[in-house]
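[Q] Does anyone have a clean structure-token version of this?
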Amino acid sequence: MHAQPIVDVLNSRTAPQLSDALVLFGATGDLAYKKIFPALQAMVTHGTLNVPVVGVARERRSTESLIERARDSLLHHGSFDRAAFDKLAGLLRYACIDYTDRHTFAELRRSLGGATRPLHYLAIPPSAFASAISGLEQANCTASARIAIEKPFGRDLASARALDRTLHEVFPESSIFRIDHFLGKEPVQNLLYFRFANSFLEPIWNRDHVSRIEITMAEELGVEGRGRFYEETGAIRDVVQNHLLQITAILAMDGPVGRDTEAVRDEKARVLKAIEPLDARHVVRGQYRGYRQEPGVSASSTVETFAAVELQIDTWRWAGVPFVIRTGKRLATTMTEVVVELQAPPRDIFGEHLPCSNYLRFRLGPDTVIALGMRVLRPNLVSGEPIGQHKELLAAEDPRLETLPYERLLGDAMRGDQSMFARQDEIDAQWRVVDPVLDDAAPLRSYDPGSWGPLEAEQLLPLHGHRVEAVA
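[A] Here you go.
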């Protein structure tokens, strides 16, 4: 079930020049420690990284201490490979830079040596973007460079547009890569591939045959020491506005016209613009009991750790079909899943009174599964009369075979391929959807850790009820 990267299935164009250095801002931070160093080693292993990697942070450190941090990262969050790590260590350099002092960026220029086409990857707080970009320009590090930034892209529509203006003061759109790491996950790419590589889906992929679509992103864990960060975001900003609306776009988009890089992004932008802005009547916000006792969290916090919303997409294909998104921390399990419920048969000739007989289920994490739910007849050993049961035809993939999301995304950015990155009109459309319900627009409900969220969510947006036995 491996999905080919989009760049491999679209017609090739004149290839942009490869970046000749990677600058990692925030090299001593948590994201670099847990995700980026393992991705860099994987890139070295697969032969896609052989240029200088300059780690940038405010702390006074040496290149040797950065190498040791990378080693520790791989021992705890990756798979340490001596030969590959030695090659990576030979590429690493360190530059101490104060993001608010543009004069310190001269050290970065020296560390880059003869590199003229670096990729600057800003794994730093958005509040530091403007000063970092100004410093890069002042130090002559932007002329032929690319820039990659991490979500969140602003806190609302107005701040997202302000950030876009800041980026475009220095970089053209073709050099801007807005990273949503979720789009780099292989199961997410496979969802797009599955939709448009199989002809049997298209005849039923519309309001005439689909009754409802659910997207669930659940976590058993809480904020895990990130309370201060979460107080500034909440569930809607953290995953609904970006990850889950991007999944919605992949599910709801029409087939791309043409094979160029922009074809898929054009269709995603079109369907995102067709989603009606949310209102509080179709939103349930929740907070797990105990959240306010987390380090860094206000004792009177009104930030949501759970959100359930119902979207309506105003297109000919999807008018009237509810798209239900549900996400939260400290829920009953950890998984990301899409369930596409199909309409019931036109007549209930067996008298079972079932609202839904068939569905497609896409498990995007932690395991990868595509399943078809159906009704089959099974013998009843008690009465002797056969009875109908739910069963699944299931195809599963070993997640250990998947490419690391940041390996793919950083490699794509260094090649200049924007296929798996969000475009600004997509981001604007996503903020437009959630803007009306940010912060305290909907009441905050409490829920117990280990549950499926507030009771009000189940009353407003009942969960997909199937608990089925898989058929190999």
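[Q] Thanks! Anything notable?
[A] DSSP finds 14 helices and 16 strands in the chain.
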